[in-house]
Specification:
alpha/beta; Immunoglobulin-like; 2 domains; 7 strands; 49% helix
């Protein structure tokens, strides 16, 4: 009985430095995701998957805090799954593509950095737990963490600079007259998300003689079309374009709107009006 009790006590260990880094990174990522979720909500949309991901990251941090040998690996795997899932979402990649949108860009950078740190630290902490009784902080860990923090701070500074110079942030997505512009290729928009100032129109440019039929709505993940006209969105009812350009709008109400090409699966465009 005594040996069994000792075994139970030793199966749960004090948290190593790497395990603490894993937990802290997951918490930072969860808070950043909460900020992104709130930003989308302010734009007029409540995205349930973002709420679920935020809760999962908090749960992952809690699991990692149990102090068992394998729990840091659980945190690392969840961080990896969340990172991969995030980069498949147009909202997330759209935020990263627009550093001028400070409120969404910076949390997305923080989420990416926190997830990467959690993955590496979680795997390393698990290996350390099974290989060694003494679990000191790895050499150079402080330097690596300082580098990650430096990258985040650098991205923040760039975002603030771009925000202070709006023309720099819109040069790649506006026409010569400053109108928000999205180009279309054979079967896709050149970007999944575009920012449109409230009261402005959106210019769609067909870069070749490619036929597209545009409508309000989106393609779902399973490849099914979902016609949808959000309140405040300009009506786009199966408008055909083959070459040339097309103006849509004006967008008079702030919010998140969706357009899709009805003949090209997964050709979606999310329009963020603010």
């Amino acid at each position: 009985m005594k040996e069994t009790a000792v075994g139970k006590r030793t199966s749960r260990r004090s948290l190593s430095v790497l395990a603490r880094v894993t937990i802290f990174s997951l918490l930072i990522g969860a808070l950043a995701y909460a900020v992104n979720t709130f930003q989308v909500y302010l734009a007029g949309s409540l995205v349930v998957p973002l709420i679920i991901i935020t809760l999962v990251m908090f749960v992952a941090a809690g699991v990692s805090a149990f102090g068992l040998k394998w729990t840091p690996a659980v945190g690392a795997l969840l961080a990896l799954a969340i990172l991969i899932g995030s980069y498949t979402q147009p909202y997330f990649t759209g935020h990263l593509a627009h550093p001028g949108d400070v409120g969404s860009f910076i949390p997305s950078v923080v989420i990416t950095a926190a997830a990467l740190v959690a993955i590496v630290a979680g795997v390393a902490a698990t290996i350390q737990n099974y290989r060694s009784v003494d679990r000191p902080a790895p050499r150079g860990m402080g330097l690596v963490l300082s580098g990650v923090i430096g990258v985040v701070l650098g991205a923040t500074i760039v975002s603030l600079i771009v925000t202070a110079n709006p023309s720099a942030s819109s040069a790649s997505s506006t026409s010569s007259n400053g109108e928000p512009t999205v180009h279309m290729g054979v079967t896709s928009f050149d970007q999944n998300v575009v920012l449109v100032p409230k009261g402005s129109k959106l210019l769609l440019v067909d870069d070749g003689q490619y036929q597209h039929i545009l409508a309000n709505g989106m393609w779902e993940m399973n490849g099914s079309p979902k016609p949808l006209t959000e309140p405040g969105a300009p009506t786009v009812n199966n408008v055909s374009i083959t070459g040339g350009s097309l103006e849509i709008g004006p967008f008079t109400t702030a919010g998140v709107y969706h357009l899709y090409c009805t003949i090209h699966v997964h050709m979606n465009l999310t329009i963020l009006v603010q």
